[in-house]
Amino acid sequence: MKKLEEVRDILTALKVPKAQKNDMCCYTLLAMAGLTKDQEWKFATNEWIRIHDVIAFISKNYPATYAENSRETFRKQAMHHFRNAAFIEDNGKATNSPNYRYRLTNEMLKLVQSYHSDQWEQELSHFLQNHETLISLYAAKKAMRKMPVKINGKDFTLSAGKHNQLQKAILEEFAPRFAPSSECLYLGDTTKKDLIKETDALQKLGFDISVHDKMPDVILYSAEKDWLYFVEAVTSVGPMEPRRIKELEEMTKNVTSGKIYVTAFLDFKTYKKFSESLAWETEVWLADMPDHMIHLNGDKFLGPRK
């Protein structure tokens, strides 16, 4: 097909590796540019779109169909490499957010719009001359959106989004108040599942770390009290409900340290949505009221039940 070969020609001119010139990557670039097979390159656009929209666009306008469950393949094979090359950018939302979007960078848009025109060679030369600068520019732009946080005395950055905003509050506001001198044994960033994972310490305490998918968002440990704080950062799903407690109890059946289960919310409004599903004998912490806790423990305040 003519359009597919034209995209491949553009990517070849940009010195793209062979793996990123396959049909799926070429179709992705066409969808990102919003171009059907009969449209000229000068009509390319760079609207914000999701991978779901890319798949739908390809299916509607080209003789290729990709299943919805292939989104991760698109992300790894096309989006990741195109973003690193400053061909596309994302909107800075958390990757698990329904509002996460991609678009062609303005520089890439200008380049593809010039294809088959008298300005193509000039625009291509300009793009290639400034490519490393563009990569640095967009990498810096992405880095600026990250949130700095100090964990166990070391500096880290969390990717943008409400979930990580709440995790940052747990580390900087909850821990000093209610888990003083504790160490963070586990924390998952929205783009890196195991940002912090102190495997040796977890195993020494008796954790079954082979089931890490069931890990809570944050695990803190106070050696002084021999208490473990399991904290779920709730921005949409995942409070400390009875089913969740059962999963954690199974994962920590060989752990003898005291266990404290905490559900963290950004605000009271979000807490109200989940209040009826929370398990008894757990704790609630609200980031917008950091000095206070809501105890669902009956006769006990903060502390392990067993």
Topology:
Elements: H1 2-13, H2 23-33, H3 51-61, H4 71-84, E1 88-90, E2 102-104, H5 106-113, H6 120-129, H7 131-144, E3 147-151, E4 154-158, H8 162-178, E5 183-187, E6 196-197, H9 199-205, E7 218-222, E8 227-234, H10 242-251, E9 258-265, H11 268-274, E10 283-286, E11 293-295
Parallel strand pairs: 8-9, 9-10
Antiparallel strand pairs: 1-2, 3-4, 5-6, 5-7, 7-8, 10-11
Helix pairs in contact: 1-2, 2-3, 5-6
How would you explain this protein's 3D organization?
By secondary structure, this protein is of the alpha+beta class. It has two domains: about 1-145, BsuBI/PstI restriction endonuclease, N-terminal domain (Arc Repressor Mutant, subunit A, Orthogonal Bundle), CATH 1.10.10.1820; about 150-295, Trna Endonuclease, Chain: A, domain 1. It has helices at about 1-15, 25-35, 50-60, 70-85, 105-115, 120-130, 130-145, 160-180, 200-205, 240-250, 270-275, and strands at about 90, 100-105, 145-150, 155-160, 185, 195, 220, 225-235, 260-265, 285, 295. It has a seven-stranded mixed β-sheet with strand order 6-5-7-8-9-10-11, with helices on both faces. Helix 2 (about 25-35) crosses helix 3. The N and C termini lie far apart (about 70 Å). The mean pLDDT is about 85.
